[in-house]
Amino acid sequence: MLIDSEVLACGTAAETMTEFGYAISLAEYLQFVGRSARDIRAELEARFGPMPPDLATCERARLFARFTAELQAMPGAAATIGGLGIGGLGLPVCVASSSDHERLAHTLGLTGLLDLFRPNVFSATEVARGKPAPDLFLHAAGRMGVAPAGCLVVEDSTAGVTAAVAAGMRAVGFVGGSHCGPAHADRLRAAGAERIIDRLSAVTALVR
User: Fold this and answer.
1) Number of domain units in the chain
2) How deeply is 182 buried, as exposed, middle or buried, from its count of CB atoms within 10 A (0-12, 13-18, 19+)?
3) Which of 37, 73, 133, 154 sits most deeply, having the most CB atoms within 10 A of its CB?
4) Under a CB-based contact definition with an 8 Å cutoff, are residues 197 and 176 in contact?
5) Cα 46 from chain centroid (whole Å)
6) In this predicted model, what pLDDT tens digit does every residue of 154-188 receive, in sequence order?
7) pLDDT digits (tens, 9 = 90+) for 1-53
8) 140 in a domain, yes or no?
9) CATH code of 40's domain
């Protein structure tokens, strides 16, 4: 949601898997957006069977290189987060992502967003179940000292919106990413998003 990474990540994964003999399209892989690597791998291995460790190693190396060359923050991300947090409205803000900490440090660092959140960057690797289960959001709220009912989650995936609703949090659906097609807003609403936005600057007005 903060960075436009999904097409890059899913495209790299689909290309690498196909090269290794496990044919999958970008459109198919995009169905996993919002879910943890652990859960994605389990579902893929249920479909294709066990995959060699060097596939994941190759994919990660390619992905980090591609991120370094191409990754962009969503327009208005830094200004919006800065305006909500210290120096702005003074609200507690955090990242609760399905990515692991190494990937989060890489992507948020590349886009200049890491220092706006540090140390409040939480990963699905810290909990037993990733999105769409509520575990990650409940973990983040607990660490931030905020009751679930007082949290606003901005999510660009149905798994994330489902997780937020299950955690008892209000969810806003974001459709500004390059992976969001014409029907994406309807899917986020169906998952429980109470509002849909296509630019991050709209978050400030919602919070106010």
Assistant:
1) 2
2) exposed
3) 154
4) yes
5) 23
6) 999 999 999 999 999 999 999 999 999 999 999 99
7) 899 999 999 999 999 999 999 999 999 999 999 999 999 999 999 999 999 99
8) yes
9) 1.10.150
